[in-house]
Amino acid sequence: MPRKVLCGQIQCHTPPFDQDTPVSKIKEMCIEKHIPLLDEAGKKGVKILCLQELFYGPYFPAEQDTKWYGLAEKIPEGDTTKFMMEVAKKHGMAIVAPIYEEQITGVYYNTAAVIDNDGKYLGKYRKIHIPHVHPGFWEKFYFKPGNLGYPVFKTQYADVGVYICYDRHFPEGARLLGLNGAEIIFNPSATVAGLSEHLWELEQTAHAVANGYFVGAINRVGTEAPWNIGEFYGKTYFCNPRGQIVAQAERDSDELITAELDFDLIREVRNVWQFYRDRRPETYEDMTKLLP
Q1: What is the total count of domains within the chain?
Q2: Per-residue confidence (pLDDT) for residue 2, from 0 to 100
Q3: Whole-model pTM over 0.70
């Protein structure tokens, strides 16, 4: 029986806010803005849905300010995870929900919670590779590097892996997600126009080809005041194991993008391109020895 699954991704502008707006209010505004798009996904019959990186706030690593620690919450005990569990159960839809995670006070991660279609919390992925680059990507101020490895979550519809934003520049983790059994990788991101835009459709389609799986790449949209570090250019897309983009969102729209993905294509592609069979891990040992 064919395994065709309708998958979705949401890209969204951050609502405008004043400098003195409490972070709790900003969080509430962002979640409220996503609710119609979540309901749209449910009505369209989306079975696996992913939201953009840090979806319930602006891209606050554009500055270094401890007030943004107030957005962090426990997973799965926090309100956002619980809300997403309710949405998943209501619509019979597995959800990947990026959340600013508080492990304990003062220890925070850039994390995605994965929830199955019955509302059951399956686990979380913590972003491994943390950038700290000029201008305006000061993530080491906010996030400890992830320490949970590269887990794959068995939803009712597919085996899902997560790779968050800057992670996408590192093929090693993308390969490990494939070796761990992922059929689709979601990469919720916040990336601006410039050098990254050329790479946006290059690196992740290459991961799909090298590993014979689907990729869902999500980017937020718009220019966020007061920092104005650049244009978040959207262009959220799905690509198949052949590296072909099969659906793509607009550059500057609040949008739910959907695609029916045929997971049987994974077997077809891997039976032609035998990259896992022909890899030679015993020859790669120097990869982790040459540099600290």
Answers
A1: 1
A2: 63
A3: yes
- 69-86 per-position pLDDT tens digit: 999 999 999 999 999 999
In a domain, 289, yes or no: no
Q: Rounded to whole angstroms, how far apart are CA atoms 29 and 284? A: 48
In degrees, rounded to 5, the angle at the alpha carbon of residue 223 between the alpha carbons of residues 220 and 229 is 100
pLDDT tens for each residue of 43-67 = 999 999 999 999 999 999 999 999 9
* Backbone φ/ψ region at 171: left (φ over 0), alpha (ψ -120 to 50), beta: alpha
Domain assignment present for residue 243? The answer is yes
Residues annotated as catalytic are: 53, 127, 165
Task: Record the tokens describing residue 25, joined without a space.
Answer: 């209010």
Contact between 205 and 235 under an 8 Å Cβ cutoff? The reply is: no
Find all residues with CB under 8 Å of 52, minimum gap 6, and list them. Answer: 9, 10, 11, 12, 98, 188, 189, 190, 218, 219, 220, 236
Does residue 181 contact residue 165 with C-beta atoms inside 8 Å?
A: no
Sequence-ordered strand ranges (E) for 141-205: 152-154, 159-162, 184-189
Task: For residue 280, tell me if it sits in a domain.
Answer: no
Q: Strands 232-233, 221-222: parallel, antiparallel or unpaired by DSSP? A: antiparallel
Angle at 22 between CA 85 and CA 14, to 5 degrees: 60
Expressed as residue numbers, the domain containing 157 is: 4-275
Alpha carbon 99 to its chain centroid, in Å, reads 10
Phi/psi for 10 (5° steps) reads -120, 125
Output b/e per residue, 233-269; b: 16+ Cβ within 10 A: bbbbbbbbbebebebbbebbebbbbbbebebebbeeb
Rounded (5°) CA angle 17-137-20: 20
- 290 in any annotated domain: no
CATH number of the domain to which 133 belongs: 3.60.110.10
